[in-house]
Design goal:
α1 packs antiparallel against α2. This protein has one domain. With 86 residues, the chain is mostly helical.
């Protein structure tokens, strides 16, 4: 099973998506007997690569967020110490 084949959501895989959809329209019966299987495999590989890239970007973003959060918590702790001593 694959995600919806919308080109605007998967620009990396646009060529493969178009070829896969064309194969399905050109071979309405043969598609059930493996005519478009090689394109499906390429499409799945492209989706995996796309997901991997998104996963790496999300991981980097979360690292930056955690660093900002730790700096903010450290700043709050220092402010609490200063207000407690006054």
């Amino acid at each position: 099973m694959h995600p919806p084949l919308t080109i605007h959501r998967h620009p990396m895989c646009a060529e493969i998506i178009e070829a896969f959809q064309k194969c399905h329209t050109d071979h309405p019966i043969k598609k059930f007997f493996g005519e478009c299987t090689d394109l499906k495999i390429k499409l799945d590989q492209c989706f995996r690569e796309e997901k991997s890239i998104k996963r790496k970007a999300n991981y980097e973003e979360s690292k930056k967020f955690k660093e900002r959060l730790q700096a903010y918590r450290k700043e709050l702790a220092e402010e609490e110490k200063q207000s407690a001593t006054q």
